[in-house]
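DATA CLASS: polypeptide
GOAL: derive structure tokens

***
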Amino acid sequence: MEARWNDAVLASSDDIVKLEGNAYFPAEALKADRFRASSHRSVCGWKGEAHYYDVVVGDKVNANAAWFYPDPKSAAEEIRGRVAFWKGVVVS
């Protein structure tokens, strides 16, 4: 599978975990130069605290378009070390 935004590949992998309709890519599948840390956080009652990345392609920024759970609760352990996308990022 690939994650793309603005015609740029953000991540590519055959090792995908699907959860709640989202495809979680292994962190090592990300093109590191297209991501920067965000201070945004959100909380899911059964997964834990989500941290976010801004997606950066050229001079365009898609704020908080990727998220991950650095320390997921036990019910979501399968997504540890994985990143998912939204906000116009196409996963196919």
